[in-house]
Every structure is written in structure tokens, then in C-alpha cells.
Specification:
Length: 470
């Protein structure tokens, strides 16, 4: 019954979309027909996708937070270290729901401080935070009326974590976004009955449609109404057998009907890993691609995309995972992603006490120090027009190229090829007075800059080229 409803609603959306597209195409200056038509009751403002994505394309850098009951075992179960990512311990250690639920009684993050968390993100130069409202284990970080398996009803902490983060993000001007898992190892109408293999993609639950239409959609509506507006609805766990392409499209429209200016990632679709790094925007439901733990070699031309990545090897906290990426590596990844036209969603996994690990805090502070002087070369930039350059990366804005020099030349000369436009000026971004011009000569498509003997920043010194035309 549900599927036929979705099919008929889906065709209604298609017809209405076609009609509205004709009306809207005048309103939105679109180079491509990527207008998102919103099937919203009450005639809420129809927004073009570009209008919704504008803040996101400016932001370029966000914080991912994986936090929940899994921080309590922190990678160990009954005295044994459990391999794999920390938030999957319920599945990896084959923990029965009744046992895993007991962790709620131990979840008391008394050191949680929303102001501190948001300050750490903001000081790092991050513009948005995506936090797990509910991960695959089904535990809810807000006071939901759909279950008592939440931080207010089931833990000694009893505080509304999402509510405190919403207030702090508003205060500090950071967009709050929610990661929400379609897969649910706790709900009897979802994957709980698949125990001990909660992630068994060969299994189906006859009540999954009820889970989607009542519980999943009900909680999403609750999140938007009580904690919105949400910057992004960041879906995950889309690979379960019962989640169909039609459900994905219906959920996409449902989210936009709840909040017409929100953004929905592509994992609302029913694709699997391949879908996440999609190269064509008409293949998936959702507004942008989500390559995970990888940076597409040439970006994803033609679509918006965001690489999500851990700082060590786990999303959720593991007490013994100290395989931290260096600050230099993380900063180079941020620049590399921006140079290919993408966003970087960098993860932290807070402890059961409510603290972001010190190693993460240190790295974010160091990135923030660099961003303090160089964020102009990241925010609102687009992919490099130069292709690969031997000395680093390049990001662009109309009339400007930002040369990110990782390997500073020892001979005092920096050569840049592939520039057709006339270069008007060249100077160090950190040299706000543009006191020292670096420009020497330009012939054909090559320019040669005379640069100081030492790099201003050992990790990435940015040179600005002001060029004629776009
Ligand atoms: O299974 C999840 C995983 O726990 C984590 O949340 C990542 C982050 O994008 N997403 C899924 C794996 O692709």
C-alpha cells in the first residue's frame, strides 16, 4: 500500500515539478536545470538549489561529530578490544539490544560544554557542525516523544544535548546540521530483529514501511520543528535492503517540505558506496555527493560534493586509537579539497565524559591559526583552473587565483604555467598591505614570480594573483 502511495505521489511530484519548473526557470538564474521543486503544503517559498547551496559553497569547512553510547565502551567489550570503527561496536561485538541499552545508564557526560565545542569548531574556521542526532544504534541525542531510548529519558545526564548545541550555534553563528541514520539497530520495525547481524543487507523487515512513515519521518519532523532551521539533513545507513530509490526521493521531498531552505545529502538515496562519489547530479536524490575517507582525484565536476574524514581511524571515540593524522596533512587535505571544488567535513569523536579528544583540539587550533590569515583562499572559492601544479594547489575566485605553495622554491623563483589572463598583481595573502610585489614576468601562459627566500608559512604559504577578467 505504502509503495503504491509513494508511486502515485512520485508521479504527482513529477507533473507538478514540470509545471513549476516552467514558472521557476525565470526566477532562478540556473545554468542547468537543477532547480529543486518543493512539494510543500501551504505553498512555502520555492527555492532554487543554488539559493539553498549558497552558504554551503561559501563555507567549504565543517565539523562532523559522532557521539553516543558507543563512547562508553570506547572500543572495548567485556575486556576485549573490538576491531573497526568505534560507533559500530554493537554490530562488531554482536551485542544484543537488551545488553547494549544498558549503556544508557552509564552515559553521563558531565564535562559536555556546548559553548566549548562550538568555540573549538569556530576557532578552527569551520562554518557548520553535523552531529549524530541518531546513529545506527538508534540512541537519540534529543528528547524525542517517539521513544524513551534518548538522552533525557534513559540516561543520568537528562540534558537535551541537541537543544544546548542549537542555542550555542545560534549564538556563535555556526550552522547546526543533523546526521540521521536510516538504518536502526534498536527499532523492532527496522534492523533490530536481524541480531546478531544487524547489518545483514540480505534481510528484510515487513514493518519497515511503518518505521519509515511513522518513526523516521516523525522524528525528522520533530527535529526540524524543535531544533530547526537545520543547515543540512545528513542521511546515512541508506544501504539497507528495505530502503528503496522511491523512498529516497520521497524522503528528499519530505525534508524540503518540512524546511524549504535546507540541504539534503545524497545518502538519502538508496545507492551504495558508488553513489557516494557520484559524478552526475541527475543520478541521485539529494543535493551533494559524499565521498568518505577519500578525496576524488579530480574532484566531482558538475556536482557539489563534500569529503567526510576522520582525524584518526574511527568516527566514534575509541580510547586506544591514536593514529592521528598530522596537522600538516589535515591542512593540506582541506586545501586539496577546496582546490577541487569540494567541502571538507572533518570528524571529532567526543569521549563519554563529553570532551573532544585533546589530539583533535590541538589539530583544530593549529588549522584555525592558519585560517586566521588565509581563510580568504578557502571560503567561497572554486576549483583550480590550472590543473595539477608541482609546488602545491590553487583555488580561485573571480579575478583572483590563490597559489597554495606547499614546497617553497629554494631558488627564489616560482613558475606558474597555464595562465592565459594578464596578471595585474602578485603578493603574499598574509601581506595585507600588499607591500611586496612578487611579479617578475609573464610570457605566453607562464609567469615567473620572484619570491622571498623563506616561506611565510612552512605548511602552506598563499600567494595571490590578481588577474584580468574572470
Ligand atoms: O556506517 C557509517 C559510519 O559509522 C560513519 O557514520 C560514516 C560517516 O560518514 N558513515 C557510515 C559508513 O559509510
Amino acid at each position: 500500500m505504502i509503495n503504491r502511495t509513494i508511486q502515485s505521489r512520485y508521479s504527482a511530484v513529477l507533473i507538478m515539478s514540470a509545471v513549476l519548473f516552467l514558472l521557476l526557470s525565470v526566477g532562478c538564474q540556473q545554468e542547468e536545470a537543477n532547480i529543486t521543486v518543493i512539494k510543500s503544503p501551504g505553498g512555502k517559498k520555492q527555492l532554487c538549489k543554488d539559493e539553498r547551496m549558497e552558504w554551503w559553497r561559501q563555507a567549504r569547512f565543517g565539523m562532523f561529530i559522532h557521539w553516543g553510547l558507543y563512547a562508553v565502551p570506547a572500543g572495548e567489550w567485556k575486556g576485549e578490544k573490538v576491531p573497526g570503527i568505534g560507533e559500530w561496536i554493537m554490530e562488531r561485538a554482536k551485542i544484543p539490544v537488551s545488553e547494549y541499552e544498558q549503556l544508557a545508564g552509564q552515559f553521563n557526560p558531565v564535562k559536555f560544554d556546548a559553548e566549548q565545542w562550538v568555540q573549538i569548531a569556530k576557532n578552527a574556521g569551520m562554518k557548520y557542525i553535523v552531529i549524530t542526532s541518531k546513529h545506527h544504534d538508534g540512541f537519540c541525542l534529543w528528547d524525542t516523544k517517539y521513544t524513551d531510548y534518548d538522552v533525557v529519558d534513559a540516561t543520568p545526564f537528562k540534558r537535551d544535548i541537541l537543544g544546548e548545541l542549537v542555542a550555542e550555534c545560534k549564538k556563535q553563528g555556526i550552522r547546526l546540521c543533523f546526521y540521521h541514520s536510516i538504518m536502526d539497530w534498536h527499532h523492532p520495525d527496522a534492523q533490530a530483529p536481524f541480531y546478531p547481524n544487524y547489518n545483514d543487507t540480505s534481510k528484510s523487515n515487513p514493518n519497515f514501511d511503518r518505521y519509515v512513515e511513522y518513526y523516521l519521518k516523525g522524528q525528522l519532523k520533530e527535529l526540524v520543528q524543535n531544533y530547526g532551521p537545520l543547515g543540512i539533513m545528513w542521511f546515512d545507513g541508506e544501504w539497507v535492503k528495505d530502503w528503496t530509490r522511491e523512498m529516497g526521493w520521497d524522503m528528499y521531498d519530505y525534508c524540503l517540505s518540512l524546511q524549504p531552505d535546507t540541504i539534503v545529502n545524497n545518502r538519502v538515496g538508496n545507492g551504495r558506496q558508488g553513489m557516494r562519489g557520484l559524478s552526475k547530479s541527475d543520478e541521485f536524490a539529494g543535493d551533494y555527493g559524499t565521498p568518505e575517507q577519500e578525496i576524488p582525484a579530480t574532484g566531482l565536476p558538475g556536482v557539489d560534493w563534500e569529503t567526510c574524514m576522520t582525524m584518526n581511524d574511527t568516527w566514534g571515540y575509541k580510547s586506544y586509537d591514536n593514529n592521528w593524522k598530522s596537522t600538516e596533512d589535515l591542512l593540506h587535505k582541506l586545501v586539496d579539497i577546496a582546490s577541487k571544488g569540494g567541502n571538507f567535513l572533518l570528524n571529532v569523536g567526543p569521549t563519554a565524559e563529553g570532551l573532544i579528544p585533546a589530539a583533535s583540539v590541538e589539530r583544530l587550533a593549529a588549522i584555525g591559526e592558519w585560517m586566521k590569515h588565509n581563510s580568504e583562499s578557502i571560503y567561497g572559492t572554486t576549483a583550480s583552473p590550472l590543473g595539477e601544479v608541482p609546488w602545491g594547489r590553487c583555488t580561485a575566485k573571480p579575478g583572483k587565483l590563490y597559489l597554495h605553495v606547499f614546497d617553497w622554491p629554494t631558488n627564489g623563483k616560482l613558475e606558474v604555467t597555464g595562465i592565459k589572463n594578464k596578471v595585474k598583481k602578485a603578493y603574499l595573502l598574509a601581506d595585507k598591505k600588499k607591500a611586496k610585489m612578487l611579479f617578475e614576468r609573464q610570457s605566453n601562459e607562464k609567469i615567473v614570480l620572484t619570491v622571498p627566500s623563506r616561506a611565510a608559512d612552512p605548511v602552506d604559504t598563499v600567494i595571490v594573483l590578481e588577474i584580468e577578467n574572470k
